């Protein structure tokens, strides 16, 4: 390998020319208390049930009436490329908010349909229109930078009526990070509302010199206009109805907008795309209504969150806070969806390879070969008020990228694409050894160079999530326990690919390095007194002796010895870790435990899913059954069986569901992927596409699930339909149909 200093490009700063040891010292001097990326909760907005739509870089968060209530501080709004283009859209009937009857999102998540009615309408203290005489139907649709609203008013009173319909609109053009709670030293210029015939224009000139405009076209034109407040006078005979249409367009100066097509045309285009998505993968059904609803909602949410980029489909992390590509989240989601939707893995690998680190940039924590953490757009990104342009402060995205590459090949057998990515994979391996392992001790560590970067750079990236038994925060550079497992799995997978590409020396080297890491890992992270692994090593190589969920990921990666795996599983299911709804991020007994915190006692579905896959890997089937049941039952208590990003870690209470976390994303991509990891664990699915083979390893079904049927599952261009059912002593597998040259192996 090239020398770390001499391999650098010219014109570097003195800071960049420091040796790794000097950087370690400097990093240790940076101590941050608090987190500038902390998401503030709005007491009112957190208690409102919200509906969401998304298409590409555009998303909507509204209440169940499809209002964006400007009177409530919170995350609701119409967003495009990280900027809120509407923060208010209130609709009232004769000055009063209508009564909600029902609201629902279409099966393909193209639009929201809401039925509302009037409350009692008085004039001069006299009741003139009783409640439930007028219907207000609202259909809201989203398409890239467009928001369509169709309002239909109908009179069910026996007499003619005359009412007013008022709307309040507003646009603060806040960057998503401002909405989250970040304070900026200055903002750009917000212009007064301007009207051009039927069109309301709301404008903002950003400090990045980009003009952003919200255009609202009314059809018909309002009867009264005052600033951004409008009023219609509606006269309706019995059974008569009238319609009002709003077309809202977000425009960013210098960004080409797609043509404004008719709503009917857009709906057909969307439905065609959704149908192609459904048909492009396998079909899954089961005996359980619960399981079917969970699968169907999750599959819809994966489609909702996946974004068609120039490099293919990439799952964006979550709504509302993380509508962006994330290296870690996108890789894990893509792995969860293998083999059911392999296009996600392909698009993710393409995208992350395209934006792989090329140089040294301290502001972005970028280094050659490193895989990005997060990529944002918007005013604050343009001004470098945030480092996510893209930002590379993730210690685990790089090994996860390599794990995804190997799993993609294992399920698709597509070596031609793997060859295309192979040079990128080699650069990522070089990053792991040269820059990931700062002091040459064999462990991959992280530290923050960027003044605006993340203090903690694993998946638990809260500022206080990595600490010692006495509550002291771990000082960087920090080596996380799960990251060593990821590196082990990455090197083992890349060794297999190296063999396939006839690079036998490299394959041998990677296996030796992985074995050395495995042995060292057991020596340095194992806590004999706890029969468990510690969460991390700090800069002094002192072990953070915390009971956490992190070692559960080491089951998933396969770095653990079998005897240690059994002990870890036992500990994870003790009462201080297992709430009844899932495994907590840390034990109830730890100093910093708080069941309402983001990472220090909450329950993350994706965290549990990776642990579940690890339990299955080590044949710990009784724990697989227990965790599967907990996650499935938890899904019942969230709207439409949509598991959120996280929920609170309170212990399960009889006849009550889990407690929501107030600022949790919902949907969240890797939470939507949980049910597919459950499906793989239950059926024991493993792919060996290069040998045209599929395995069913110790298939098992919980008591509440009689059978699962999967049709049209693809493995290297071959297809299989199968049926897994409860048996007298174990689950049985029946192959209903398959390609002639696909071998099926069932392991009991």
Give the CA-CA distance, first to last residue: 45 Å
Report the sheet-strand fraction: 15-25%
Shape: globular
| Main sheet overview | 9 strands, antiparallel
Number of domains: 2
The overall strand count is 33
User: Using only CA atoms, what is the Rg?
Assistant: 27 Å
The amount of helix comes to 25-40%
Quote the CATH topology of the largest domain.
Glycosyltransferase
Mean pLDDT, as a whole number? 92
CATH architecture of the largest domain: Alpha/alpha barrel
Oligomer: single chain
Tell me the structural class: alpha+beta
Low-pLDDT stretches: 1-17, 23-33
> Helix tally?
17
Name of the CATH class of the largest domain: Mainly Alpha
Fold topology:
Blueprint: H1 20-29, E1 50-55, E2 58-63, E3 77-80, E4 83-86, E5 88-93, E6 99-105, E7 111-117, E8 121-123, E9 126-129, E10 134-143, E11 146-155, E12 161-170, H2 176-180, E13 189-190, E14 194-196, E15 199-205, E16 211-219, E17 224-226, E18 229-236, E19 241-252, H3 263-279, E20 283-286, H4 289-305, E21 306-309, E22 312-315, H5 327-337, H6 342-354, H7 379-382, H8 397-412, H9 415-436, E23 479-480, H10 481-500, H11 504-525, E24 526-527, E25 532-533, E26 536-537, E27 543-544, H12 550-557, H13 562-572, H14 605-617, H15 621-635, H16 669-672, H17 674-683, E28 685-688, E29 693-697, E30 707-715, E31 718-725, E32 732-738, E33 743-747
Parallel strand pairs: 29-33
Antiparallel strand pairs: 1-2, 2-3, 3-4, 5-12, 6-7, 7-10, 8-9, 10-11, 11-19, 12-18, 13-15, 14-15, 15-16, 16-19, 17-18, 20-30, 21-22, 23-26, 24-25, 26-27, 28-29, 30-31, 31-32
Helix pairs in contact: 5-6, 5-8, 6-8, 8-9, 8-10, 9-10, 10-11, 10-12, 12-14, 14-15, 14-17, 15-17
């Amino acid at each position: 390998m090239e020398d770390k200093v001499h391999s650098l490009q010219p014109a570097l700063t003195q800071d960049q020319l420091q040796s790794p040891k000097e950087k370690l010292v400097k990093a240790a001097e940076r101590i941050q208390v608090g987190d500038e990326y902390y998401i503030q909760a709005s007491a009112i907005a957190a208690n409102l049930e919200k509906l969401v739509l998304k298409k590409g870089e555009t998303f909507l968060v509204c209440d169940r009436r499809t209002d964006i209530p400007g009177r409530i501080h919170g995350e609701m709004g119409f967003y495009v490329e990280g900027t809120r283009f509407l923060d208010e859209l209130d609709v009232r009937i004769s000055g009063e908010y209508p009564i909600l009857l029902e609201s629902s999102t279409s099966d393909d998540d193209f639009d929201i349909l809401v039925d509302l009615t009037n409350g009692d309408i008085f004039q001069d203290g006299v009741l003139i229109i009783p409640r439930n005489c007028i219907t207000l139907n609202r259909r809201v649709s989203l398409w890239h930078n467009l928001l369509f609203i169709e309002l239909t008013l109908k009179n069910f009173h026996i007499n003619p009526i005359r009412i007013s319909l008022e709307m309040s609109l507003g646009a603060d053009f806040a960057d998503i990070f401002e909405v989250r709670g970040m304070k900026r030293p200055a903002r750009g210029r917000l212009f007064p509302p301007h009207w051009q015939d039927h069109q309301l224009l709301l404008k903002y000139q950003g400090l990045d010199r980009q003009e952003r405009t919200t255009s609202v076209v009314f059809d018909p034109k309002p009867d009264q206009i005052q600033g951004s407040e409008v009023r219609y006078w509606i006269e309706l005979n019995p059974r008569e109805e009238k319609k009002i249409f709003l077309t809202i367009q977000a425009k960013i100066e210098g960004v080409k907008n797609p043509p404004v097509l008719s709503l009917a045309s857009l709906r057909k285009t969307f439905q065609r795309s959704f149908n192609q998505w459904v048909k492009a993968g396998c079909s899954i059904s089961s005996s359980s209504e619960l399981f079917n609803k969970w699968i169907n909602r999750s599959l819809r949410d994966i489609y909702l969150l996946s974004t068609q980029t120039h490099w293919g489909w990439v799952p964006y992390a979550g709504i509302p806070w993380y509508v962006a590509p994330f290296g870690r989240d996108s890789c894990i989601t893509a792995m969860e969806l293998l083999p059911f939707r392999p296009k996600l893995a392909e698009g993710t690998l393409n995208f992350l390879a395209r934006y792989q680190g090329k140089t040294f940039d301290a502001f972005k924590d970028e280094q050659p070969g490193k895989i990005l953490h997060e990529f944002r757009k918007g005013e604050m990104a343009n001004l470098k008020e945030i480092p996510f342009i893209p930002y590379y402060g993730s210690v685990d995205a790089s090994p996860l990228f390599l794990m995804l590459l190997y799993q993609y090949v294992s399920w698709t057998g597509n070596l031609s694409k793997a060859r295309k990515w192979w040079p990128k994979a080699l650069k990522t391996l070089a990053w792991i050894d040269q820059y990931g392992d700062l002091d040459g001790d064999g462990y991959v560590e992280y530290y923050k160079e960027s003044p605006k970067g993340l203090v903690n750079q694993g998946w638990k990236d809260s500022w206080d999530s990595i600490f010692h038994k006495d509550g002291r925060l771990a000082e960087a550079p920090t080596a996380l326990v799960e990251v060593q497992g990821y590196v082990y799995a990455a090197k083992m997978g890349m060794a297999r690919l190296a063999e396939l590409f006839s690079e036998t020396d490299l394959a041998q080297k990677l296996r030796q390095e992985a074995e050395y890491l495995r042995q060292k890992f057991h020596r340095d992270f194992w806590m004999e007194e706890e029969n468990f692994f510690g969460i991390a090593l700090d800069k002094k190589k002192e072990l953070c002796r915390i009971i956490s969920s992190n070692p559960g990921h080491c089951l998933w990666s396969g770095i653990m010895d079998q005897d240690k795996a059994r002990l870890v599983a036992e500990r994870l299911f003790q009462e201080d870790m297992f709430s009844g709804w899932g495994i907590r991020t840390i034990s109830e007994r730890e100093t910093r435990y708080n069941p309402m915190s983001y990472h220090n006692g909450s329950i993350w579905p994706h965290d549990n899913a990776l642990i579940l896959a690890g339990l299955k890997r080590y044949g710990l089937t009784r724990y697989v059954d227990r965790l599967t049941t907990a996650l499935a039952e938890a899904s019942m208590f969230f709207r439409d069986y949509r598991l959120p990003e996280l929920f609170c870690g309170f212990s399960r209470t009889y006849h009550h569901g889990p407690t929501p976390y107030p600022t949790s994303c919902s949907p969240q991509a890797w939470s939507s992927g949980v049910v597919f990891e459950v499906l793989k664990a239950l059926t024991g699915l493993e792919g060996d596409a290069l040998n045209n083979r599929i395995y069913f390893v110790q298939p098992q079904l919980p008591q509440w699930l009689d059978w699962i049927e999967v049709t049209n599952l693809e493995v290297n261009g071959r297809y299989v339909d199968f049926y897994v059912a409860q048996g007298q002593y174990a689950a049985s597998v029946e192959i209903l149909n398959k390609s002639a040259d696909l071998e099926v192996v069932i392991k009991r």
